[in-house]
Structure prediction request, 74 residues.
Amino acid sequence: MNQNQTTAAAGIYEHALIAVLYAAQKEGVNLEALLAHARNDTAGHPGLRPNPKDLDSVLQAIEHTINDVKLTTK
Prediction:
C-alpha cells in the first residue's frame, strides 16, 4: 500500500469511528464506559486489538473523537 492509499484508508477509518461513536451516543451508549472497556479489555481477541506499539495512540484517538462527538451533540 503506498502513502496515498494509507492516508486515504486512515481517513476512512477516522470517519467510520466518528460515525459509529455518534450513532452509539444517539442510542444512549455511555462513551466513557466504552473507552474504559477499550482500555481495559486486554483479554479480548488479539486480532481485534491494536498493535501494542500503537495502543496508546489508538486509545488517544478514540478519546479525542469521543470528546469531539460529545461537543458536537450538546
Notes: The helical segments are 3-26, 31-40, 55-72.
